[in-house]
Design brief:
It comes from Diplocloster agilis. One of its GO terms (molecular function) is 5'-3' RNA exonuclease activity. This is PHP domain-containing protein. Pfam families: PHP. By secondary structure, this protein is of the alpha/beta class. 40% of the residues lie in helices and 14% in strands. Strands 4-5-6-7-8 form a five-stranded mixed beta sheet. The protein has a three-stranded parallel beta sheet with strand order 1-2-3. Helix 1 packs parallel to helix 2, helix 4 crosses helix 5 and helix 8 runs parallel beside helix 9. The protein starts with a strand and ends with a helix. The model has no long low-confidence stretch (mean pLDDT 98).
């Protein structure tokens, strides 16, 4: 039994519908899939219904962006199998609103350089809980200025050091972890190597604040993975793997199922649920 426990749909910044993701997972014979959209659980009920149709197990989840107050750096936190979703609203709704407000401000700045249509970008976002970078870049690509979503132009314009970048204030990671536990969820730190969060993971693991670590992910280096596995085993934490699949909106081209969670750890998650 194996599962890919990290992917994104059109309800956040992925290019695929939930049905497309689950159909894909079925065709590559995954046993379980978690659709973990950014700061929203809009696709969870749909995923569960489609999982029954395609005969694939669904691990309910979402991924929240938080901030480490000690470093100011972002930390992505996965929440699996929450028993109640209402407590999560105080995080998801605020972050989604702030994300959209920031993108709208970026679009106003972009109008100085491009004849971009705010209405078109909002339409590209569609059912997404917020406006994300790929929606903005699609607006620029459709004007003929680029043929890629992620690349030098995105970095130049709306990346962290971009000329039109507007920062987002993310919630404190400790507060978010508490809220996820209040919701009855299982808390897993996503790809800690990306934001140099391994010291924080050590602290959270030692303090019994988390249930698992996403050890297998393309943004973790080999050395990161080895250290994360050591921390997880020393603290009896669940070890997960996920591709972080975004479809055509992926920064790196990894097919669904590239990184997975093994049988033993899947069973621990399912037992928790």
């Amino acid at each position: 039994m194996t599962g890919d426990l990290h992917c994104h749909s059109r309800y956040s910044d992925g290019s695929s519908t939930v049905r497309e993701l689950i159909s894909y997972a079925s065709r590559i014979h995954l046993d379980y899939l978690a659709v973990t959209d950014h700061d929203t659980y809009k696709g969870v009920a749909e995923a569960i219904a489609l999982g029954a149709e395609y005969q694939i197990g669904i691990v309910p989840g979402l991924e929240c962006t938080t901030k480490d107050p000690a470093t100011g750096r972002p930390v992505h936190v996965l929440c699996y199998c929450p028993k109640r979703y209402e407590p999560l609203d105080q995080v998801t709704e605020v972050t989604s609103r702030r994300r959209t407000e920031a993108k709208l401000q970026m679009l106003e700045k972009l109008k100085t350089y491009y004849p971009i249509s705010v209405e078109d970008v909002i339409a590209y976002a569609g059912d997404s809980a917020a406006i994300f970078e790929p929606h903005v870049m699609r607006g620029i690509a459709n004007l003929g200025y680029t043929n890629t979503i992620y690349g030098p132009l995105m970095d130049e314009l709306i990346g962290k050091r971009g000329t039109c970048y507007v920062p987002i204030e993310y919630p404190d990671i400790y507060d978010v972890i508490d809220i996820m536990h209040e919701a009855g969820g299982l808390v897993v730190i996503a790809h800690p190597g990306q934001f140099r969060s391994i010291p924080l993971v050590r602290e959270l693991a030692a303090g019994h604040r988390i249930e698992g670590i996403e050890c297998f992910h393309y943004r973790n280096t080999k050395e990161d993975t080895q250290e994360l596995l050591r921390i997880a085993k020393a603290n009896d934490l669940i070890i997960t793997g996920g591709t972080d699949f975004h479809g055509m909106n992926s920064r790196q081209p990894y097919p669904l199922g590239t990184y997975t969670t093994d049988d033993e750890n899947l069973r621990r998650i399912l037992a928790f649920a």
